[in-house]
Write a structure and sequence with these properties.
Elements lengths: L5 H10 L4 H80 L1
Helix pairs in contact: 1-2
Length: about 100
């Protein structure tokens, strides 16, 4: 897809005195320059997007690791508390059965 409107530019250049061949050459050179600049711009954008994606993946991996660690840190005290409660309840049931 051309960046510049070739027919409009051709008419404008011919209106100010350029021959058809001169106007066409100017448009071709200008169009190629614009296209090259646009290609370089898109190359930089693609590179930036790849960098951003890599950084985002690393950040997500770090967050996932932190969340899993936090979950482990919260589960351990809960398991200890439940185990202690079960031990106390078992002890009380055992003591109650001895009394009966």
């Amino acid at each position: 897809m051309p960046i510049i409107n070739e027919m409009k530019s051709l008419d404008r250049l011919e209106a100010v005195g350029f021959t058809h061949d001169q106007a066409k050459a100017i448009i071709e050179v200008t169009g190629e320059g614009h296209q090259d600049g646009f290609s370089k711009y898109t190359d930089v954008l693609h590179w930036e997007l790849r960098q951003f994606t890599a950084e985002l993946r690393l950040e997500i991996r770090t967050i996932r690791t932190d969340v899993l660690k936090a979950q482990r840190d919260q589960i351990l005290p809960f398991v200890v508390l439940v185990s202690l409660a079960l031990a106390v309840i078992s002890g009380l049931i055992g003591a109650a059965l001895k009394w009966l």
